[in-house]
Amino acid sequence: MTRPRLRLVGGVCAGFAEHTGVSLPTVRLVTVVLSFCGGFGALLYAWLWATIPSGGAMADPLPKSSLGRSRGFSFAGPHEAPVVATALSVDDDTTSRAATSSPRADADSARAAPVTEILLGLAVLAAGGALVASRLGADIPLAVVVPAIVVLAGTALAWRQFADIRSGAAQQSSALLVRILGALVLVAVGILLFFVTGTNPNAWTVIVAAASVLLGVAVVTAPWLLRLWSDLADERAARAREAERADIAAHLHDSVLQTLALIQQKAGPHSDAARLARAQERELREWLFTGTRGGSTEPATDLATALRRIAGEIEEDFAVHFEVVAVGAEVGVRSTASPESNPGSADAPESLVAAAREAMLNAARHAGGAVSVYLETGARGIELSVTDRGPGFRLDQIPEDRLGVRESILGRMHRAGGSASVRPGPGGAGTEILLTLPAAAYTDPGAGAVPVTPVTTTHPVPDTHHTETSVR
Amino acid sequence: MTIPEANGQGDSARAAAAPAPATAQPEASAGLRVLIVDDHSIFRSGLRAELDADLTVLGEAATVDAAIISVIDLQPRVVLLDVHLPGGRGGGGAEVIREAASRAPHTLFLALSVSDAADDVVSVIRAGARGYITKSASGAEVSDAARRVADGDAVFSPRLAGFVLDAFGAVAGETAETTEELDRLSARETEVMRLIARGYSYKEVASTLFIAAKTVETHVSAVLRKLQLSSRHELTAWALERKLL
Q1: Architecture of domain A299-469
Q2: What SS3 state is found at A40?
């Protein structure tokens, strides 16, 4: 038997009704009737309220948030009675439905506010009623009524402040503390009034008064402290999970990465096993060092990351191993979807990334093996080279790729205001594709396509077969 | 920049003292004597099988303490040293170098790591390692690197070269005016590092810059010296901040 999260007073009737199958109004009626039988119903209610666990919150294994913004932890819900018409209808709902539906959650958080108003209202009502009664000549025990009003008001105010604290709504914690203390003092004074106004005080009255004050303050603060404690426990659990993750990361780093490196080494750079191992290694590294889990879905925000990601994608399809080395200041990637997202920063245009991708793809397709990708971002601009050790770039061997290189690399870089060159790699073997983008071409937001003459340099040595010589 | 070889002296005696190397390495000729230090036996045996025939594996060690003892006992020419090692005072590969280097004057260290973390690499280089390569390198590459280290050269992976360029502010245009300056690279050193970061071999760097291969090696060694001795704060701060090479 549990008390549902959405409740009228303490959720005891609803929980009892749900547990026994008796209809809720009947249970409530019986409770009310019993309450008038010497307060037995109220006592039973209070006892059940104290002993029956609140449903939902404990079954929820994940702390949704350490602060009590989420619906399950809204402060006043479990303790007081908002007499709202809509609340009556939601009260019958089961815990699971309440926990899953967000409109309900809104209703629940809306319920948090009236509690204090109700208490204050009760206080005012009592005060008014007492006044009227005394005017009518009735013998009103002012010694009881006045303190009761003060206690009610104090409790209401205190709870309101606690709710503010938990929801993080209040910024000035010191002011809040003062207000809470004030409310608590009000409660204490109210309780004391019971005794001060009493007749012939003696030592026992003082002791009882002191105990009552302590008890009263404890009752008012207990729920809040409980919440605070559970928040703390949640936070501790989260921290423990974080530590565990770090441990796992360290272990993976030492064992799994080693094994993956070994597999790549043994299997040779062109085998499927090496490719798989490499893909796994990259994923693991990304997870270990950046903390993103399967982070390849969100777009890369900086150029080096974008290049590494492209390298990873291409490595999955081709027998190639990219060594991406990025040097210099971090440069972002300006996405065409949301241009000028941050106008102050100098972002590389997406066309550079696209051209680099094409160059890398070209190297993977026609050379394979180890391919070096070097990115340098300096004051002069961006320099990106893709160097492979393949058979060299010969158009007669790969006629279908002519357009790819001319358009996707050279044309693209030209339009972006940069330049591209294709030349034999170091020592005359392989190919080196060099993409350069002067700083002016991407730092100035307006300069999308600067009319810069493309510096398509060709290597002086025997490379008549290189791409510049061919026209489509 | 070649350091005098310590070849031949007491070679056979030391080979006999090694735990179990001769059996696994039938062609135990008087080649380059190396020691493999790594805490993963599978990696050690894998590397041992992959290494070129002219490299004689004197032994293996799995912990910092065992590595220090082995280096001092066996006096290998090159130690293939993992950056992360258990034991000792927790200093890993750098601790091995610090403890053993003075008692094995002819031994050179080549750091081998699966880690990309710059602070790892920098710590082991600054402790005195003559080079750094990643564990994904093939056996032939490791052998080649070991030979180059034995010849007194420094071995830079493209990543290490990239890190050097970053750490010394070379990309931002900082250049050293004098050769004595430790905190910045000279213009030529920057060029060499840039090409190494692009994946060029020393020979390719030499032909691209129209200089002798020996000159390239001199430049690389000079950079290594700066990396080891420079007090440039980026070397430590950068590594801590970015965590990655």
Answers
A1: 2-Layer Sandwich (3.30)
A2: helix
Reading the block at residue B211, the tokens are: 């200089």
CA distance B243 to chain A (A): 8
Shared-domain flag, residues B172 and B137: no
Q: Same domain for B19 and B129?
A: yes
**What letter does residue B80 receive in the DSSP assignment?**
E
Q: Give me the count of residues in chain A.
A: 472
* B4 falls within a domain: no
- Partners of A370 on chain B (C-beta within 8 Å) are 199
Q: Please tell me if residue B169 touches chain A, with a CB cutoff of 8 Å.
A: no
What are the tens digits of pLDDT across the range A215-268? 777 777 777 788 888 888 989 999 888 888 777 877 777 778 878 877 877 776
Number of domains chain B contains? 2
The one-letter amino acid at A354? A
Give A168's pLDDT tier (boundaries 50, 70, 90).
Answer: low
**Which residues in chain B have their CB less than 8 angstroms from residue A325's CB?**
158-159, 161-162, 197-199
Whole-complex ipTM: 0.72
Contact A157, A59 (CB under 8 A): no
Q: Which domain range does residue B194 map to?
A: 160-242
Contact between A323 and B197 under an 8 Å Cβ cutoff? The reply is no
Q: Which amino acid, one-letter code, is at A299?
A: P
Q: Is the dihedral of CA A63, A65, A70, A76 positive or negative?
A: positive
Distance in angstroms (rounded) separating the CA atoms of residues A323 and A308:
9
